[in-house]
Amino acid sequence: MVPVVTRVLLFASYADALGTSAIDVALPERATVADLLAEVRALAAAHALPPAPLVAVNQEYAALDVVLREGDEIAIIPPVAGG
Amino acid sequence: MVPVVTRVLLFASYADALGTSAIDVALPERATVADLLAEVRALAAAHALPPAPLVAVNQEYAALDVVLREGDEIAIIPPVAGG
Amino acid sequence: MRATIVERPIDAAALLAEVASPAHGATALFVGTVRDVNDGRAVTGIEYSAYAAMAEKEMRSILEEAAVRFGVTAAVVEHRVGALALGEASVVIATAHAHRGPALDANRYLIEQLKQRVPVWKRELYTDGTREWVDPSGARAMAGAPASAPGARPGGASHA
Amino acid sequence: MRATIVERPIDAAALLAEVASPAHGATALFVGTVRDVNDGRAVTGIEYSAYAAMAEKEMRSILEEAAVRFGVTAAVVEHRVGALALGEASVVIATAHAHRGPALDANRYLIEQLKQRVPVWKRELYTDGTREWVDPSGARAMAGAPASAPGARPGGASHA
User: Fold this and answer.
1) B4-77, what's its fold?
2) Residues in chain D whose beta carbon is closer than 8 A to a beta carbon of chain C?
């Protein structure tokens, strides 16, 4: 399996904490949201993130077992505070 | 006891039914709202009113046993339909 | 806190501005408008009338109740009388509070109580040229049956 | 039915006009505004940001849910992003229906769901010059504890 470099969008407090609005994560094919989070947690800056942040895939909240596909738009979503 | 002629305000459907926005009713002293309604029902045109319409005294809904005083502002209130 | 019977169009934006404050995080607005169909009949307009002095007094009572129940710090009600065309606002209620719960709760309380207690009446004009007083208590007004039980007060609230 | 993230002031009166129809007897409006105090701290302004594409998609989902649940035939939501001053509107929601019940119910549903699910964030600016991301889930953002359980979706709704 060749790892696929996947871009992950960051927002608000998470973007501030990591100092960037996107990070690149290397994932095997058929990786899940849980796999993605494990990779993100391995990043040096990820100590600032909670252990299990929400993830959106293609602009929808995604459960941990959702399988990622190449070209998916992936984002880690801080606690929302709209309104 | 000298009967006191009391003016009673009418509105909306009741004013239409009686063809006037006020009627004069002769009442004994210390008459109650119930006494007032009995007098009103004795009027020829009053068949158009329901048997027990709401009454306001001094711009507040009044129970049947409220005693009327000279100078009170009295009104018979059709079913309300605001909003 | 203000409640007024008016004979001119109601400016909803002005009511929003009236309750505005940096202390508020939430403002709720209710707008009642003249609808083109009621009880299956095509309506062309509505004539509203009121016992204005009592209507304002009763609306102020309801505002005071809302202040006690929900802690709303700013609320204003305008009810229009006269001949209204389709789509025109007959009543506008604005409520504001630091938080949305009280603002929304108070707004609903005000319109529900207003419809039960405030002496305002409407006569609908129909496309066939007829017109009729509306009796939300069930029977059409003047249909014979009493709209309310003897001594009953609208809404059942204890405002003796 | 429209849901939009905007970068300019929200015109509440325009939203009222947008949902207006002679078929409606009731319109409800909610306005969320920047408050001068939050959690006991004096606030001087709020910076809102959003994952705009997803926020609009999620708001549209909520609108569709409201249409199904309450039968509202007209509803529009605008949420503003950027730097807002005290008293400025961050969100405005307008809903309309023939009757007041569905208009009011849908309006409350929309703001409650929006606050739980729509990816918008705010950073409060305080009088002491500091600023902080707001975490309504309890802990201040970035305080260490997870804001949500693993795999949980905001609001617990089933929108897989």
Assistant:
1) Ubiquitin-like (UB roll) (3.10.20)
2) 12-13, 16, 20-37, 86-87, 98, 100, 104, 107-108, 111
